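Here comes my example:
=====
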Amino acid sequence: MAGPPFPKPVAENVAVTAVWSVFADYGWFILFGLIVIYILVQNLPRKIRERSSQPPAYEPEAIVRREEAMMAARRRMQEEIDAQAAVFREKQREREEEKRRQKIAKWESMKEGKSYKAALGQNPAEEPEPGPSTSAAAPKPKSEKKPLRSGGYNPLSGDGGGSCAWRPGRRGPSSGG
């Protein structure tokens, strides 16, 4: 016997085989990880420089001017809201006064025995008389549609379902031959 037909693997061959098996199993993950690390290394120092180069904006005069501008804007907005509220209150007061006048007029006409419509500015003589009208040529179509289900329908109550009601099967043995 001259020697083994296969040479013994050298430590280098074992290492190369192990590396190739890792790349075969996790190759895509390693590739994407390396791309992410490359992008971070390229962009991270730039962002650090940008943050360190900006001086802090703590100038007292600028802060005071900004606060005064905000207070002036708030004051203007509050004045606008107050003006709108005053207009609304005035309109509301006028509506209530008009309702009060109508109620008084209605009450006085009712005390005199007249129709309340006369007190509201309508002439009771102008009311249409029941009978044949001039617009009988175009009668208003009646839409008496039947609702699909009653207003108190409840699917859990068990009634109103018709043939859809569930009934348990018979107990006991089946009668067969």
In short: Residues 50 and 98 are 68 Å apart (CA to CA). The chain has a mean pLDDT of 78. The helical segments are 11-53, 60-112, 116-119.
